DNA sequence: ACAAGATGTTTACGCTATATACAGTGGTGG
DNA sequence: CCACCACTGTATATAGCGTAAACATCTTGT
């Protein structure tokens, strides 16, 4: 509230709309005085887009499609959201919501980071489009995204690592979750079967070119295994971090 | 050669064109008998698309733009490439080329995996669009991609790990390279400065909400540091793998 | 020589995001 | 009270995308 609405000084057209987008993400928007009551809010729009993406995938989330969800024209959305980029940012913020309270859930940096990763993973599983949405370019972070980051960094504080190291470890763990989401997106059930069939046929014809791969497949490296991929990678990473800590 | 050209039995329209795309990737195309000589090849098209993407980014690689590079119409490309998806796959195969000979370059699984990661990282740096290109959906792997995978798996064979574990470790290391590329794509120089400025202003206003993050920034966790991010993550991961090996 | 098959162009369709111009609504200052 | 004007929503238009379909042109096997 309070801040007078600046009369839209977009000299750079779309270059410096960052502040507008940021204000949106942080909910710092002042409602207008005169004129008809808005029938929508950025949050309601984002929520509709989220349920749409959950149901039919991110690629079906177009301005037209989302607007149709409210029975309005596509251009109506631009009264609430500067553009599609910002809409996607709002979607991300919407599904992230508040991070879990790690200090309550578990004790010790390792257990806390581990539950952090599992919670984050749960979000990726619930909203498979999240990976693609955050993989797009030039992200600005909203409060929820920062809160997740804060939670992970807080868990790392008692380790005795330097600030730079803690940051790197955070990136490492966050990356592991993203990677797993990526792998899941690449190989769904059907595709995996098809890929395996075609690739094995090709490998039979070129087995001399890929000896290690051929052997790995023969040894069942690609058949679904009992070890959870998230935990496997996480354990390796955290073991490595533990080594670093012990060394200091 | 040899295989008679099937008269294009696309009943599913675009669902079962996979074999066509695969044949392209593996160079198993038979040249036609009658008709004018083709003025292009899939490889030349892909190469032009690669240099275009290197120079102006993947988003400017459109069928029209690539076709213009040869002075032909956009539709002419469809005589050589089934669609844009397959073109991008060809681009990926083109820039990957043959993996390095790790057994010659270094000895020991750790050194070999490390150089593997560095070589892969070099490719990502030379072609920043590679991340986005491989992040797209439903990839089928070409021979070069499989060759890189084979090289990494070969390096892991002397570790004594199970086939499943070796596969997981491979995914872990490959993921680390991808993650770094992702971070580089997210935060280029200019954007980083701008992000830091805006975020620090927001953090000043909400420092109570993000105590650990605020402290981390104050401690210089985000200022460019001397430790190489690729090596830092890699060292943690490989340390963790070493722990696993020792335990067995 | 002729037919067959391959190449390349033209045209068109449906889709995307969004700029622009306009119509209706309703709170507020004169 | 009423006119103004900020604000909402719509209609229209543009530029671009990938690609389907119809067509003309060229080359080669028969």
From TrEMBL, chains A, B:
Spans annotated as Disordered: 1-21
Record field: compositional bias (Basic and acidic residues): 1-17
Gene3D superfamilies documented for this protein: Homeodomain-like, Tetracycline Repressor, domain 2
Keywords annotated in UniProt: DNA-binding, Transcription, Transcription regulation
DNA-binding annotation, residue ranges on this chain: 62-81
Origin: domain of life: Bacteria
Segments forming domain HTH tetR-type: 39-99
BP GO terms, sorted: negative regulation of DNA-templated transcription
GO-annotated molecular function: DNA-binding transcription factor activity; transcription cis-regulatory region binding
Name of one Pfam family that matches: TetR_C_1
Protein name: TetR/AcrR family transcriptional regulator
Species of provenance: Nonomuraea longispora
